[in-house]
Sequence to fold (233 residues):
Amino acid sequence: MATLTIVYFAWVREAIGRDEEQVERAQAGATVADLVAMLAARGGGYAQALGDPARLRAAIDQRFAPLDTPIGDAREIALFPPVTGG
Amino acid sequence: MKRLAIQAKDFDVAAELAALEALGGGGVASFTGVVRGGDGLLALELEHYPAMTQAQVARIVEDAMARWPLLGASVIHRVGRLEPGARIVFVGTASRHRTAALESCAFLIDWLKSHAPFWKKEHFEGGATQWVEARAEDEAKAKKWGG
Fold:
């Protein structure tokens, strides 16, 4: 079964308690938003980190992408808060 | 000239400016970001997405070089723990035209704030911590450049 790597940053990473994990592609859903909903349904830190998608941003294979973007053949999805560099 | 660095260590502003001046364009603009103290702030911790940061900053620099006639652009962004007074970020641009140097410098720092995968966490006296929230104002500043 093909897997998808999910990486987390900032308070998303802290609430979930890990910085990376693998998800079976077949369970990930069609879009990043579907993946977020599936992960949030695990409850606990996942629900805390991912329960309000409006607070989240994402990248697909190291490029920023809106949450409604199809996952397609992506290998790595990153979930994180709006960026605060500079 | 394109110079990009994502690093924990400090940088030498004078050396960075000298490298841009040596391009011979006659105009160099720069911005240096420094950790602002106050309210019991002990340090900022800068996290980033290592697999993405370098490529994303390179895209931002290429974008600036496509929009303005630049001879050179330098972006240095530090990561890790930084105390008040420490330099965080440097943006420098060189051009034959001062408007191009100044505008592209402003563009680069606005886009770094809203289009590069960095996150700041504040550490305060007494042990409290807080992730810095993105400001709508920064997003608006980035949007004014279009694209």
Q: What stands out?
A: The mean pLDDT of chain B is 96. Chain B touches chain A at residues 33, 46-49, 51-52, 55-56, 77, 88-89, 109-110, 112-121, 131-134, 138-139 (CB under 8 Å).
